[in-house]
Amino acid sequence: MERINLDSPRWDQGTYAGRAKHFFAITNPLNVLATPAELEKAREIISRYRSGEQLALSADELWRAKNLYDSAFHPDTGEKMQIFGRMSAQVPCNMTITGCMMTFYRTSPAIVFWQWANQSFNALVNYTNRSGVSPLSPRELGISYVSATTGALTVALTLNSLAKKAPPLWAKLVPFAAVAGANCINIPLMRSKERTEGLALTDVAGNQLAQSPRAAREAISLVAISRILMASPGMVSIPIIMNALEKRGFIKRYPYLNAPLQVLLCGFFLTFATPLCCALFPQKASIAVSKLEPEVQAAINKLPNPPTVVYYNKGL
User: Fold this and answer.
1) Which one of 11, 55, 86, 114 has the fewest CB atoms closer than 10 angstroms to its CB?
2) What's the pTM?
């Protein structure tokens, strides 16, 4: 078998279909069920293959091991990540929190608890997937956590108060507005170093050329858009579905199905929305040199055969 480059994704990342296949593989919730022995076996396979050893495995078997390895081990440090912070845990954890957030939205104590639970989970995910090269300090994590939680609670409690006089459907959409607002606060704060110091820019061969805060701001905007769109299908469609069921008396007849039904619907939407929205923008994003800061343009243009387009890691 021809040697496989495990440092690049299996599918073409220049197409949306290729990116979608890649993210379906790494966010697969079944990976969270892998035992410690299975994870260790996957780590050993990848380590041996990267060292140049020829293994009696097919390409599919090798990629399955790579996907399992990527789902549990940090890409920079190689350390095994905390299970609830892994990308493969996104769907089961988010479906539970989001489903309950949309079920118990009528009272202030319930809003406070579930928005706090959601932001606590986000903080855990951000900490688990922190950069191994320039990790976030505890202070930065704390500021992001408190700011996002405060922002989400402020939006949720304010809108919930205003929605009391509005049709029931508007009140059901309050959790989505709170989550969208929190993402707009949380993501820029979690990546505040990049906003001030800039993202690393490379040429097509991966050679680092400069750092650009403007590229960082563009990356943060793209990530915020994809996160909000990721939450949209479930948090917008489910209130409409539940509102229709309430009008037909279904929830009144079977009140015990209210929360489980919303959690399961969230799981269905998130299973598809998570990878499909992660794939909206290329992970290796590009930007024209002419759009960068004047001093960054000058530094790049001084290079031999300067590129007109440079690349950066957008993040997730």
Assistant:
1) 55
2) 0.82
